[in-house]
From TrEMBL:
<dbReference type="GO" id="GO:0047102">
    <property type="term" value="F:aminomuconate-semialdehyde dehydrogenase activity"/>
</dbReference>
<keyword id="KW-0560">Oxidoreductase</keyword>
<keyword id="KW-0963">Cytoplasm</keyword>
<dbReference type="InterPro" id="IPR029510">
    <property type="entry name" value="Ald_DH_CS_GLU"/>
</dbReference>
<comment type="pathway">
    <text>Amino-acid degradation; L-kynurenine degradation.</text>
</comment>
<dbReference type="Pfam" id="PF00171">
    <property type="entry name" value="Aldedh"/>
</dbReference>
<dbReference type="GO" id="GO:0042573">
    <property type="term" value="P:retinoic acid metabolic process"/>
</dbReference>
<dbReference type="InterPro" id="IPR016161">
    <property type="entry name" value="Ald_DH/histidinol_DH"/>
</dbReference>
<dbReference type="GO" id="GO:0001758">
    <property type="term" value="F:retinal dehydrogenase (NAD+) activity"/>
</dbReference>
<keyword id="KW-0520">NAD</keyword>
<dbReference type="InterPro" id="IPR016160">
    <property type="entry name" value="Ald_DH_CS_CYS"/>
</dbReference>
<protein>
    <recommendedName>
        <fullName>2-aminomuconic semialdehyde dehydrogenase</fullName>
        <ecNumber>1.2.1.32</ecNumber>
    </recommendedName>
</protein>
<comment type="function">
    <text>Catalyzes the NAD-dependent oxidation of 2-aminomuconic semialdehyde of the kynurenine metabolic pathway in L-tryptophan degradation.</text>
</comment>
<feature type="active site">
    <location>
        <position position="254"/>
    </location>
</feature>
<dbReference type="InterPro" id="IPR016163">
    <property type="entry name" value="Ald_DH_C"/>
</dbReference>
<comment type="similarity">
    <text>Belongs to the aldehyde dehydrogenase family.</text>
</comment>
<feature type="domain" description="Aldehyde dehydrogenase">
    <location>
        <begin position="24"/>
        <end position="484"/>
    </location>
</feature>
């Protein structure tokens, strides 16, 4: 059984309701040990072609089902994933490096909820109508699914973000070809095993695994995929826009962030400090919504910094399956090196690293010595122009700087290319409202972080994306609208 437990997990593509082996494979690592433990299909044009063909063939039947029929199937799928929640959570933690606690309480419950949410919301849409009595006319809109949706997702919240696309796409009556990140493909493959039992007809959900430049690009370039929903980096999004331009594809792009926290001197620090620690370091700082620039008003700057660093030092980093651990491993060796290089650059520029990387030592359990771990790192006195204050680091690194006035901090917060999520901390309602209105950010959380109502729009401004997702927004993206005019 020892040999058995060491055997590699081998994934297969899921096309037309069947698992299909691939001719070549990619190694996938367990980030907490550094071992190769899984092999992921290295799909290309051929596999994408077969998946698109299956999705096209399934479209007429699936799109003609009533919203209620589709809703019931989505609910069944939610129940099946929930039934296996623990197995999914274990797999996600092993594949991604995140703590089992995070996978168990955030990733998988949200994947379940994504299906339940769209199973419900699809039943409640109405279309528009306008009368033009003097002309004897009535206008109304009608919505229909678009066709085969191409869905491309990243590695940080694997099943959570993939289902956030699959659920609305199929609820609206589209069929899909999904391409998860090559680094985190396991939970998507596990979900495929449940589709038939949930009653999802063959070909409605197809999953091709593989690299972005090969499988992902084949999907983006396929002429029979009129719509691409992508979550990932801004750089990849630019490539996707270029490649889809000849086909004028409909794109939804959820991209990176460089999110500010703005903390005024009347903030309730007993709430602000623990929440800002989470917003900086949750999921190893690998959430697009994570805080990475903390602006603190001068009067409370020293106190904030002292308390924040003291709390950051208490975070336990180590084996993701240890329930007492706050932070697991980063996704890959390359990513760890990249994140570390930002800390080195900050030091070289004269900033002060107050805790974490290069300052404190990290003791890891024997089995995790080769894992991709680093400590939560807080940097102070970083210049606004520094790459650490401008570029998305996407790891457990956060910069703290002082500010004086409201006017000044709004300008500094807005002075990056991104505009995804901001937090504002103050007990002055008027100020909170004024600042929130002026921030260039798709989401502004005041006196909280990551509190979401899926009904409302989610997405970024500027280089953080194009389009929004949510009950109404996803419905609009995944359907084509038509205006019909009737004259008596
Ligand atoms: P990435 O852009 O490298 O990859 C994302 C996906 O795109 C992967 O599945 C990848 O294989 C695929 N891909 C890569 N090149 C491609 C190409 N040429 N054509 C088609 N597909 C291609 O991003 P990542 O490193 O996996 O994820 C981290 C990034 O995602 C960060 O920038 C983060 O901020 C962003 N993100 C954004 C949100 C959001 O909702 N705004 C959520 C999570 C993550």
């Amino acid at each position: 059984t020892m040999a058995h437990s060491k055997a590699l997990l081998v994934l297969e593509n899921f096309i037309g309701g069947k698992f299909v082996p691939c001719s070549s494979y990619i190694d996938s690592y367990n980030p907490s040990t550094g071992d190769v433990y899984c092999r992921v299909p290295d799909s290309g044009k051929e596999e994408v072609e077969a998946a698109v063909k299956a999705a096209k063939a399934a479209f007429p039947i699936w799109s003609s089902k009533s919203p209620l029929e589709r809703s019931q199937i989505l609910n069944k799928l939610a129940d099946l994933i929930e039934h296996d929640l623990e197995a999914f959570a274990q797999a996600e933690s092993k594949d991604q490096g995140k703590t089992i606690t995070f996978a168990r309480t955030v990733d998988i419950p949200r994947a379940v909820y994504n299906f339940r949410f769209f199973a419900s919301s699809i039943l409640h849409h109405t279309t528009e109508c306008a009368e033009m009595a003097t002309m004897g006319c009535v206008h109304y809109t009608s919505r229909a699914p678009v066709g085969v949706a191409g869905l491309i997702s990243p590695w940080n919240l694997p099943l959570y973000l993939l289902t956030w696309k699959i659920a609305p796409a199929i609820a609206c009556g589209n069929t899909v070809v999904a391409k998860p990140s090559e680094m985190t493909s396991v939970t998507a493959w596990m979900m495929c095993k449940l589709l038939e039992k949930a009653g999802v007809p063959h070909g409605v959900v197809n999953v091709v695994f593989g690299m972005g430049a090969k499988a992902g690009e084949a999907l983006v370039c396929h002429p029979d995929v009129p719509l691409i929903s992508f979550t990932g980096s801004t750089l990849t999004a630019q490539r996707i826009m270029e490649k889809s331009a000849p086909h004028c594809k409909r794109l939804s792009l959820e991209l990176g962030g460089k999110n500010p926290a703005i903390i005024f001197d009347d903030a309730d620090l007993t709430q602000c400090i623990p929440t800002t620690l989470r917003s900086s370091f949750a999921n190893q700082g690998e959430i697009c919504l994570c805080t990475s620039r903390i602006f603190v008003q001068r009067g409370i700057y020293s106190e904030f910094l002292k308390r924040f660093v003291a709390e950051a030092k208490k975070w336990k980093v180590g084996n993701p399956s240890d329930p007492t651990v706050n932070m697991g491993a980063l996704i890959s060796k390359e990513h760890l090196e990249k994140v570390r290089s930002y800390v080195k650059k900050a030091q070289a520029e004269g900033a002060r690293v107050l805790c974490g990387e290069g300052v404190d030592s990290l003791a890891l359990p024997t089995g995790n010595q080769k894992g991709y771990f680093m400590l939560p790192t807080v940097i102070a006195e970083v210049k606004d122009e520094s790459c650490c204050m401008q570029e998305e680091i996407f790891g457990p690194v956060t910069c703290v700087v002082a500010f004086d006035t409201e006017e000044e901090v709004i300008e500094r917060a807005n002075s990056v290319k991104y505009g995804l999520a901001a937090t504002v901390w103050s007990s002055n309602v008027g100020r909170v409202h004024r600042v929130a209105q002026r921030l260039q950010s798709g989401l502004v959380w005041t006196n909280c972080w990551l509190v979401r109502d899926l009904n409302l729009p989610f997405g970024g401004m500027k280089a953080s994306g194009i389009g929004r997702e949510g009950a109404k927004d996803s419905y609009e993206f995944f359907t084509e609208v038509k205006t019909i005019t009737i004259k008596h």
